[in-house]
């Protein structure tokens, strides 16, 4: 497997932003024996207490809690504001920062601007979530780029969280991820949103293909519109894919109208 080793140790992982996706990841990390802390703009102390995670309302003691890894799991649209509020200078040791956002060039650029030089950086995207990962992660893609890694043991141990669950480990650049994700993830979300706008519902004469479309719509609308808009605003390849979709629809429409006039 490219880019990973067999070394693995138990980690102290601090999570910035403890929404549904972070909670989903945290449960597996705890199951594997890692120790977690969390901080968030919203008060998630109750769910953290249930999971055995120490929750910090104040960012300073969170940064002072001796984490090996700090996981950034904010929304795409709030990332810049969240990073600007973190006093990185209070960190007492070199730390591995990992982001799990659905776009990659944007957080890579921001984190390289604000992180201390001695901090390591791993950009990742688990290509699954609470819906399609609810029955396990085996065979699901986990993308990562080792942006700046000097502590190989900590990096390898973090990657093993996903490797040990059977993820398909994909080591590619942030640029290549965004290029491919614009064609796959953003396009899928766009079609699902279009079907939602059309308010398609089950009929008495469903085909298997139509049922697939209904399932797609239902899965997509479980995600926030902020996530979808973030995929567009902060992926420089998404606008072209939206244009391609419009061109394709217009081309098909013209072909159909040509048949009407024959």
Overall description:
It comes from Coptis chinensis. Pfam families: PDH_N (PF02153), TYRAAT1_C (PF26213). GO terms for molecular function: arogenate dehydrogenase (NADP+) activity; NAD+ binding; prephenate dehydrogenase (NAD+) activity; prephenate dehydrogenase (NADP+) activity. This protein has helices spanning 20-31, 45-51, 59-63, 79-84, 105-114, 152-163, 174-197, 208-220, 225-233, 238-261; strands spanning 12-16, 35-39, 54-56, 69-72, 96-99, 120-126, 141-148, 168-171. The longest helix has 24 residues, at 174-197. By secondary structure, the chain is an alpha/beta fold. The chain has an 8-stranded mixed beta sheet with strand order 3-2-1-4-5-6-7-8, with helices on both faces. The N and C termini lie far apart (57 Å).
What's the topology here?
Blueprint: E1 12-16, H1 20-31, E2 35-39, H2 45-51, E3 54-56, H3 59-63, E4 69-72, H4 79-84, E5 96-99, H5 105-114, E6 120-126, E7 141-148, H6 152-163, E8 168-171, H7 174-197, H8 208-220, H9 225-233, H10 238-261
Helix pairs in contact: 7-8, 7-10
Pfam family, one: PDH_N
GO molecular function: arogenate dehydrogenase (NADP+) activity; NAD+ binding; prephenate dehydrogenase (NAD+) activity; prephenate dehydrogenase (NADP+) activity
Domain Prephenate/arogenate dehydrogenase: 11-262
């Amino acid at each position: 497997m490219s880019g990973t080793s067999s070394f693995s140790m138990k980690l102290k992982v601090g999570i910035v932003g403890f929404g549904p996706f972070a909670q989903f990841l945290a449960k597996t990390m705890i199951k594997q024996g890692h120790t977690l802390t969390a901080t968030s703009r919203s008060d998630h102390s109750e769910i953290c207490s249930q999971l055995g995670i120490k929750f910090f309302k104040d960012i300073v003691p969170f940064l002072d809690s001796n984490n090996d890894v700090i996981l950034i799991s904010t929304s795409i649209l709030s990332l810049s504001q969240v990073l600007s509020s973190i006093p990185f200078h209070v960190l007492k040791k070199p730390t591995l920062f990992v982001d799990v956002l659905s776009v990659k060039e944007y957080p890579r650029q921001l984190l390289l601007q604000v992180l201390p030089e001695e901090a390591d950086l791993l950009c990742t995207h688990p290509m699954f979530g609470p819906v399609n990962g609810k029955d396990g992660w085996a065979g699901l893609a986990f993308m990562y780029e080792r942006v700046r890694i000097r502590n190989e043991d900590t990096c390898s141990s973090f990657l093993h969280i996903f490797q040990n669950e059977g993820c398909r480990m994909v080591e590619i650049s942030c640029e290549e991820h965004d290029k491919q994700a614009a064609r796959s993830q953003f396009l899928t979300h766009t079609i699902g949103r279009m079907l939602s706008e059309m308010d398609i519902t089950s009929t008495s004469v469903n085909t298997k293909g139509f049922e697939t479309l209904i399932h797609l719509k239902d899965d997509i609308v479980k995600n926030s519109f902020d996530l979808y808009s973030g995929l567009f605003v902060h992926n420089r390849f998404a606008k072209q894919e939206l244009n391609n979709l419009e061109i394709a629809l217009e081309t098909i429409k013209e072909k159909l109208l040509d048949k009407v006039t024959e």
